[in-house]
């Protein structure tokens, strides 16, 4: 939310301007390194939550496989890239711009990319080379982690109150397992270009624009990214 607030305050001035403000305000610049106390991971709730997510899915993706040092290093580095590719907030209000702000922008100044790989999920590890085995573990991690992350963004509580309708121009992640299950770091981003409300005025269906075309989807298939933390109408429906 710190990144979103800084990006909004600068009126979408751009990635570099947002990074400069956040670094200057929240990073230590007096030459001292400040660490959390020993055995106190709760002091770093945000980054320790990311470490927990990494460990949880890494253990289940690797299982009881015996890896070489090079395999383990490759797998860990590529999983780090997956975690740092997650969308945080829109970079621009331009309806034709579908790229979000990610943690990768703070590391290298731009989005993290990846070469396309063949689907190795259904193959037995004994048939794979060391490189292919590392890619298979990465694909297993992606399939587990990205579903959990998207479901966490789109969590729905009891309908005790009316949620605000999704708005035209909202940037969101489109849930489509057939496209992203075997493509690590491929986030299916979309922009809402039209809403379709029912007789009660509630929007349940929208028309979205993706990199591959325009589609009509139910709002439960969308995970809107936050745009303005001070605007109650920007809450996730």
Comma- or semicolon-separated keywords:
single chain, 237 residues, alpha+beta, SH3 type barrels, five-stranded antiparallel sheet, two-stranded antiparallel ribbon, 7 strands, 14% strand, globular
**Beta strand count:** 7
The major sheet is characterized as: 5 strands, antiparallel
SSE string, helices as H and strands as E: HHHHEEHHEHEEEE
What is the molecular shape? globular
The level 1 CATH classification of the domain at 171-234 is: Mainly Beta
Strand order in space, largest sheet? 6-5-4-3-7
Radius of gyration: 20 Å
- The percent range for helix content is 25-40%
Separation, N- and C-terminal Cα atoms: 18 Å
| CATH topology group of the domain at 171-234 | SH3 type barrels
Strand content: 5-15%
User: How confident is the prediction overall: mean pLDDT?
Assistant: 76
Total of DSSP H or I helical runs spanning 4+ residues = 7
Class inferred from helices and paired strands:
alpha+beta
Low-confidence stretches: 228-237
In CATH, the architecture of the domain at 171-234 is Roll
What secondary-structure arrangement, pairings included, does this model have?
Blueprint: H1 2-9, H2 15-26, H3 45-62, H4 69-83, E1 89-90, E2 100-101, H5 104-108, H6 130-153, E3 171-174, H7 177-180, E4 189-197, E5 203-210, E6 213-218, E7 222-224
Antiparallel strand pairs: 1-2, 3-4, 3-7, 4-5, 5-6
Helix pairs in contact: 1-2, 3-6, 4-6
């Amino acid at each position: 939310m710190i990144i979103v607030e800084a990006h909004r305050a600068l009126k979408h001035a751009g990635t570099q301007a947002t990074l400069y403000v956040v670094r200057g305000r929240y990073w230590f610049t007096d030459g001292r390194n400040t660490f959390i106390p020993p055995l106190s991971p709760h002091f770093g709730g945000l980054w320790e939550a990311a470490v927990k997510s990494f460990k949880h899915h890494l253990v289940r993706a690797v299982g009881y496989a015996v890896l070489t040092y090079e395999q383990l290093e490759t797998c860990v580095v590529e999983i780090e890239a997956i975690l740092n590719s997650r969308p945080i907030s829109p970079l621009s209000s331009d309806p034709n711009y579908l790229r979000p702000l990610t943690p990768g922008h703070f590391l290298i100044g731009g989005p993290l990319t990846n070469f396309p790989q063949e689907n190795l999920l259904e193959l037995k590890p004994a048939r794979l080379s060391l490189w292919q085995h590392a890619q298979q573990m990465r694909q297993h991690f992606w399939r587990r982690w990205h579903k959990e992350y998207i479901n966490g963004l789109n969590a729905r509580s009891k309908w005790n109150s009316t949620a605000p309708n999704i708005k035209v121009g909202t940037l969101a992640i489109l849930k489509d397992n057939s496209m992203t299950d075997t493509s690590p770091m491929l986030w299916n981003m979309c922009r809402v270009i039209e809403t379709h409300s029912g007789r009660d005025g509630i929007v349940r269906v929208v028309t979205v624009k993706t990199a591959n075309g325009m589609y009509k989807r139910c709002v439960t298939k969308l995970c809107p990214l936050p745009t303005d933390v001070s605007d109650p109408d920007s809450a996730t429906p």
